[in-house]
Design goal:
Elements (H helix, E strand, L loop, with lengths): L2 H18 L3 H7 L4 H8 L7 H11 L3 H5 L10 H5 L3 H35 L1
Helix pairs in contact: 1-4, 2-3
Length: about 120
Amino acid sequence: MNKDMQDAIVDHVRMILQQKNISQKDLASEISITEATLSNILHKHRAITTDEVDKIAKVLDVPVPMLYNPIPFGCKEAFPLLAQAKTKEVEETIQKLSILAQRTLFYKNLRETAEKQMEIIR
C-alpha cells in the first residue's frame, strides 16, 4: 500500500473517530494494539497494515472500502453521512443482490429452455 493510500486511510479513520466520538484509547483496546502504536499510526509515523484496517472498520462499523476510497470529490462535508453507513446494512444489501442475481439467472435459463422446447415443437 503506497504512502498516499496510507495517508488517506488514516485521515478517514481520524474523521470517523471524531464523528462517532470514539477515543483513540478505546479503538486501540478494541483492535488489540497499544495506544502508543495507534497514535503513531494516526500521526503517520507508522504504516497501518491491512489487518489493522479490517479490524478498525469492524470496530467503527463501516465498510472496509470506505476507509480505502477517497472522499467523493474531496468533499469532507459528505464524510459524516458516509460514516453513518452500517456494515450490516451493506452486507444485507449485498445478500439481496446476490439472491436477485440467482433469480435472474434462473429465469434466464428457464426462458432459454422454453425457447428450445418451442423450437422442437415447431
